[in-house]
Amino acid sequence: MPRPCSPTRPAGGSRARPWWLWCFTNGDLTYYLIDRCRGSPLLHKFFKRQFQGILVTDFWGAYHAICCMAKQKCIPHLLRDMLRVEKYAKAGHSWRRFAKKLRRLLRDAMRLSKHSQRSAADYESKRQRIHVRLQELLDRPWTDRKARRLVKRLRRHQNEMFTFLDHPEVPYDNNTAERGIRPAVIIRKNSYANRSEKGADMQAVRMSIFRTLKQRGHGPLTTIVSALRTYLVTGELPPLPEKVAANG
Q1: 107 contact partners, CB below 8 Å, separation of at least 6
Q2: pLDDT computed for residue 15 by the predictor
Q3: Taking a C-beta distance cutoff of 8 angstroms, is the pair 205, 198 a contact?
Q4: E strand or H helix that includes residue 127
Q5: The pLDDT of residue 122 is above 70
Q6: What mean pLDDT do residues 178-184 have?
Q7: 159: closest CA among 180, 185, 183, 138?
Q8: DSSP letters spanning 60-104
Q9: What is the pLDDT of residue 123?
Q10: Fewer CB under 10 Å: which end of the chain, C or N?
Q11: Which residue has the higher pLDDT, 139 or 184?
Q12: Is the Cα torsion angle 142, 145, 150, 151 positive or negative in sign?
């Protein structure tokens, strides 16, 4: 689950160009990249082949370039975008009707995903109804300009809004990426970013290793020291250890 963040600035002479911190993560693996690119070329650099999984992201346009099994857009991001419209723009009657219907639809879908005790037939009926309600919302001729803009976005991602209803293991938010990128952002602030491209690459590699080891239940420092001792003896670094099995 990649997510671009605020720029980090490896110095390039007197004027440093903004670089971007990216985070790709799942339950037991995190990979960071620091790159000046914020678009699809960076994603092609990371995704060398078709991704055989489900990608959960926000609505940043660069993600359109990724070819994968399926995608899920972050619903809380959409809800926050709606709040910003109401906070900073004058919301008319048409917008209020549109926003009320969309919020109710999204919340009904999130509630449905949490009801594991429903019968299969009941769940399937309600899941199909969610898709029908979305189509009805998109087909309505909304007069409000902000509503039409959001409808255009929803049409583009119509098949990526409710993937979590078909795959129970998929979340409807990208909180995993948000949590994954937070420690890297803190490190960047404390270190005042980078001063060279080589330094940025080195930091991304180290952060990736440290974060992944912590996710897998290993102490980063002791694991790295052990790996270096192995390297001194064999001339090869061992692979990253597997995730520690939970007790019980």
Answers
A1: none
A2: 57
A3: no
A4: helix 120-139
A5: yes
A6: 89
A7: 138
A8: -GGGGG--EEEEEE-HHHHHHHHHHHHHHS---HHHHHHHHHHHH
A9: 92
A10: C
A11: 139
A12: positive
Domain range list for the chain = 4-68+174-234, 75-159
Q: Which residue has the tokens 């990649």?
A: 2
Token duo for residue 61: 């346009």
Burial 89-115 (b: 16+ CB within 10 A, else e): eebeebbeebbebbeebbeebbebbee
Token digits of residue 217: 């239940």
> Cα separation of 204 and 155, whole Å?
36
Do 3 and 178 contact (CB within 8 A), yes or no? yes
Q: CA 42, CA 61: separation in Å to the nearest integer?
A: 13
Q: What confidence category does residue 5 fall into, taking pLDDT thresholds of 50, 70 and 90? A: very low
Residue carrying structure tokens 């078709």: 50
